[in-house]
Amino acid sequence: MAGTQVLTKILDIREKEKKDAQLAYRRSVDIFEDIGTKLFNLLQKKEKAEEAYEEALSSNMHIEFIQDQLAYMERLKREIEELQVQVQQARANMESKQWILSEAHIETKKFEKIIEFRTNETVNQQKQREESFMNEISIQQYLSHKNR
Asked: For 18, 33, 121, 142, which has the most beta carbons within 10 A of its beta carbon?
């Protein structure tokens, strides 16, 4: 059983690594969702600004309003481009954390299987020793009973 105690300690370390990986992955998902939500909101603002711009063009709006609307849409466009880069980086980070989590999960499962195998092996060896001992006792009893 000494072998399984060492493996159990290693398993505990692997499980801690897995929990850390889960937390890191969850944080990366949250960041991705936050940036994605910001991007979505900006896209909605841009869409509304474009609608207002189209409406201003079709009506008799002041040129200053149209210029302000164009400048606003241009600023939104730059912000959207910046956020798209951030979304791609957040996605790559999230995928990296997911890979690390998968590897940690695999390592944990490996040690669980090794411990299970060794424990079963130890139990089987103990059963064999008990059976051998019982056979020896039976033979001794038979021989002592036969010699009487």
From this structure: 18
